[in-house]
Design brief:
alpha/beta, D-Maltodextrin-Binding Protein, domain 2, 2 domains, six-stranded mixed β-sheet, 9 helices, ATP_PRibTrfase_HisG_short, nucleotide-binding, ATP binding, ATP phosphoribosyltransferase activity
């Protein structure tokens, strides 16, 4: 049997998921000692790459990887064509609508919303029947309402510390975010037993962590 090819989101997701992978029986020593390496073919059953979140889904959609481990924010924002198989219960946070204390979310006007996630933001405001102008921001989105670029922001919040430090407050919670295991459709047919065994092992590891 050929090794399962897994794309793991590097950075915080990587650090949070490695203990689960290890608890499921996968030796992650090479990844922990990676230095500048991005490809890990050391194990006979699992080959890993480390990639940015949006790229994980691209590798998966193009069939270059069998499995992706990525935040649900990426899955919601991009077009996910694959099977979302498991919530890994890590990276938990929320999408929120936030602004300065004088912001009135009920004011009748076409609001300007700054965000890194225009698709998620658009769907939210459509769901509440409100038409807004969306500005996509790549950097520190918290700046937008402070300098008058936007009326409010939609962003991911874990503890809310950054918002408080910038004198911003939450006006609505849109949805929860966590890390998910996603499987390429063709790979699931070709490696069904191996993938199902990995999922079972991860489920047991999650239960132990909980």
């Amino acid at each position: 049997m050929s090794a399962l090819k897994i794309a793991l989101t590097k950075g915080r997701t990587e650090k949070q998921v490695l203990p689960l992978l290890e608890a499921s029986g996968i030796d992650c020593t090479a990844i922990r000692n990676k230095q500048r390496r991005l490809i890990f073919n050391d194990l006979p059953d699992y080959h890993f790459i480390l990639a940015k979140g949006p790229d994980v889904l691209t590798y998966l959609n193009r069939g270059a990887m069998d499995i992706g481990i990525v935040g649900s924010d990426i899955l919601e924002e991009q077009h996910n064509e694959q099977y979302e198989m498991l919530d890994l219960q890590t990276g938990k946070c929320h999408f929120v609508l936030a602004s300065t204390p004088d912001f009135d979310p009920y004011q009748v006007k076409r609001k300007i919303i700054a965000t890194k996630y225009p698709s998620i933001t658009q769907r939210y405001f459509r769901s509440i029947g409100e038409d807004v102008e969306i500005i996509k921001i790549e950097g520190s989105v918290e700046l937008a309402p402070l300098v008058g670029l936007a009326d409010a922001i939609v962003d991911i919040v874990e503890t809310g510390t950054t918002l408080k430090e910038n004198n911003l407050q939450v006006f609505a919670t849109l949805q929860s975010v966590s890390t998910r295991l996603v499987v390429n459709r063709l790979a699931l047919k070709q490696h069904q037993n191996a993938i199902q065994q990995l999922i079972t092992n991860l489920q047991q590891a999650i239960q132990t962590e909980v």
